[in-house]
Fold these 4 entries.
Entry 1:
Amino acid sequence: NKKAFVELLFWKSPAIVCEMTKGYSSLQEGEGTTRSRVSPWTPQEEQELRELYWKYKEVEGGDIIAAILAHLPTPGRTRRQVVKQLVRM
């Protein structure tokens, strides 16, 4: 492909770069470019998160997010998801 150099100037993600360097269709289906969808926070989960935040925010020298994750009833939430949701709220 004579225009491949132009494509190299406009990378979109590491997965696409890998695909360009290793050959197209080198990624297996479901790998790289498609991200798994994160389930949205329900109003119930938001309320529980708010309560846990207010409970643990006064703890001196403790990691608030770690305490919230330990007591969050919904498994599978990551630290980043919790922080992002707290900032959004």
Entry 2:
Amino acid sequence: MAHQKPLLPVQTPVPEDIDIAQAIAPVHISSIAEKLGLTPSEYDLYGAHKAKVKLSVRDRLKDAAPGKYVVVAGITPTPLGEGKSTTTIGLCQALGAYLGKK
């Protein structure tokens, strides 16, 4: 498979996490849930930008094609608290924006 051009420009040097985080306005979580096909009864809001998805979604999607799962484990957090969650989000962004993978 030929390497394709990244969907997002690669910056050198890589910007600091805080610069990346402040470069975009947060999207309301209900907009993201809607794009994912979740109904409002399938998640609980925790403010405007966080939610927990209810396990009942698994039952509704039991016949759907299986997705992909990446495990990030055994990471010692940095002094700023960057650990598994930050690494997982970074991997997802790299796979989606740079490699065009879901």
Entry 3:
Amino acid sequence: ALRLLFKMLSSCSKVGDPHPGQPYKGGNFYAFLPDNREGQKTAMLLKKAFEHGLTFQIKSCNGEERVTWGLIPHKTSWDGGKARNGYPDTQYLREVCTVL
């Protein structure tokens, strides 16, 4: 099993963000992939997406700006099925690679 950790620091938003110059709260974000050839390939694609700033976005939540997942789907749990962003979900790797 692969566990990806994304550490997003708190900072101030930049031009192009919803509220430039506003502070936002970061956090630790985890994603899970199977440890097989397809999972490792997907991990590399997710890394490239992260390096290009496509993984996260800044959103207002209860009057506070914070980092949240962007439009690329991530499995944030090992279980609970598709409805809870977990496994089993037989289509996930195919779907996320299409998005990437």
Entry 4:
Amino acid sequence: LEEITLKPVQDTGNILKQGYLEKRSREHSFFGSEWQKRWCVLNRRTFYYYANEKSKQPKGTFSIEHCSARLAFHLRKDSRKRCCFELICPGKRTYEFTAPSPAEAEDWVDQIQFLLKDLSSLTIPYDEEDEEEPYNDVDSSDSANTASHNTTLNQEEPNVEMEEDDIYEVLPGKQPNKQ
């Protein structure tokens, strides 16, 4: 099982969507299950929910990897039934939410489905811990020279003299600047 570290709202990084949703509690009361307003935050891999947007500790968090998201009009019988969606996490549980509007519910589902497609893609892997090496088209044997060469590439060098094997062409009527 992967461990998810708890983070304040401001530190969750790469926030793709956030806002208030009503989350159905797991505990069922005498009147049925209750819907509680929660500040929800979605980043590249994790869904966080807080008591409110100023909360330091999330009430809960789960990885969206291997989950699925869909609109779920059957969750409510009232006028807000078209605002419902669920996140089904196999082997864990199903999280049920009500958005402020049907359009918001669709947007949450679309964002989550987009991330799930991205996470399952084999062509563009993403890992926050892995920094990608810059592309280097020069053989590794020249890497010592490459670093110093790259640092001076975009700097102006006023006293550069043209050599015979220079790659730049001198146009007719133009003389190189020699100082």
